[in-house]
Write a structure and sequence with these properties.
By secondary structure, this protein is mostly helical. It contains 12 helices and no strands. It has a domain of about 200 residues. About 80% of the residues lie in helices and about 0% in strands. The protein is globular.
C-alpha cells in the first residue's frame, strides 16, 4: 500500500515552485526546438535523454529496478501517460496556439486530478477548502492569460484539444504513480523513460527526421534542457512530492507553470510584466494556501 501523505511543509512548497519554474521554461524551449525538429522527435529526444541521465543516476545511487511484473505494468503505463503522450501533445499543440493558451489549458489537469483522486484515493477527498483553493488558483491562471486569449481569439481548436489532453494525461499518471511511491523514485523514473524510449525513438525515425542535416545551437540546447533539466531532474522531484504530499498538491504546479512561463518569456523576450501578472501571482499563492489548509 502507498504510504500516507503528509501536510506540505515550506520545503515542499519550495520544491513545487522549483518544478513550476523548470516546466514554465519548457514552453520557450519547445518553441525553439520546433524550428528544427518535429513534435514526435522532440518528445523522443526528451524521453531518451532523460532515460540516459536517470539510469546513470540510478546506478550511482545503487537503486535497483523492481523485478515484479505488476510493478513494471505500472511503470510502462506511467511512461506512456506521463511522458510519451503529453510530451508529444504539448509539442504538437504548441504549433497552433500560444504559450499562454497552452499554460491555461494545461491547468485543466488540476481539475482532472482532484476529481479522480476523490474516487481512488481515500486520503485525498474533495473538501470545501480544497475546492475553494483550486477555484481561486485557477482564477489566477485566468487573470494571467485573459488578455492574450482576448487578443488572439479562440483559434487553433485542435491545438487546444491537444494541450487539454496532455494535462489530463498528466493527471491520470499522477494517480497511477502513487502505486509505486514505496519504490526508489529514481529507478522508477528511469524505468518509465526507458519503457517510453523503446517505442518513441523508432517512431520518430519512422514519422520524422530526428537527425536533421543542419541544426541550430538553440535547438540543441533546448533539447538538452527539455530532456535533462525539464524531464530527468523535475521527474525525480515530482515523484518525491507525490509520495510525500499526494497528487492533488502536486497538481497545483499547473498554476505555477503559466506564471513562470511569463517570467521566463519576459527574461528571454524582454516583455514587460504587467499588473495582471502580479495579481495572478497573489491568487495562485492564495489558492495554494487554501488547498494546503484543506489538506
Amino acid at each position: 500500500m502507498p504510504p500516507a501523505i503528509r501536510r506540505p511543509s515550506l520545503f515542499d512548497i519550495l520544491r513545487l515552485f522549483f518544478v513550476g519554474s523548470v516546466w514554465g521554461g519548457s514552453f520557450i524551449f519547445i518553441a525553439l526546438a520546433l524550428q528544427d525538429f518535429g513534435p514526435v522527435s522532440i518528445a523522443a529526444w526528451r524521453i531518451f535523454l532523460a532515460a540516459v541521465v536517470l539510469s546513470v543516476i540510478s546506478l550511482a545511487f545503487r537503486q535497483k529496478f523492481p523485478r515484479q511484473i505488476r510493478y513494471w505494468i505500472f511503470i510502462v503505463l506511467i511512461g506512456f501517460l506521463n511522458s510519451a503522450v503529453p510530451f508529444y501533445l504539448i509539442s504538437w499543440g504548441q504549433q497552433f496556439i500560444s504559450s499562454a493558451e497552452s499554460a491555461l489549458l494545461m491547468a485543466a489537469g488540476t481539475f482532472c486530478t482532484l476529481i479522480i483522486s476523490h474516487f481512488v484515493s481515500p486520503d485525498e477527498r474533495i473538501t470545501v477548502m480544497r475546492g475553494l483553493g483550486v477555484t481561486v488558483g485557477f482564477s489566477g491562471v485566468v487573470v494571467l492569460v485573459f488578455w492574450d486569449l482576448f487578443n488572439a481569439g479562440l483559434g487553433g481548436l485542435k491545438g487546444q484539444i491537444a494541450i487539454i489532453g496532455a494535462g489530463c494525461s498528466y493527471a491520470v499518471s499522477s494517480i497511477v504513480a502513487r502505486q509505486l511511491t514505496h519504490l526508489p523514485s529514481i529507478s522508477v523514473s528511469a524505468g518509465t523513460m526507458l519503457s517510453a524510449s523503446i517505442y518513441m525513438v523508432p517512431l520518430a525515425f519512422f514519422m520524422e527526421t530526428p537527425l536533421p542535416a543542419q541544426v541550430s545551437t538553440s535547438s540543441l540546447v533546448s533539447l538538452f534542457y527539455l530532456g535533462v533539466i525539464g524531464t530527468a531532474l523535475a521527474f525525480v522531484i515530482r515523484f518525491t512530492i507525490i509520495r510525500a504530499n499526494g497528487a492533488v498538491f502536486m497538481s497545483q504546479v499547473g498554476y505555477l507553470v503559466p506564471l513562470f512561463g511569463v517570467i521566463w518569456s519576459w527574461l528571454y523576450f524582454s516583455d514587460v510584466i504587467n499588473i495582471q501578472t502580479w495579481v495572478s501571482l497573489g491568487l495562485i499563492l492564495l489558492g495554494i494556501a487554501i488547498t494546503r489548509r484543506g489538506s
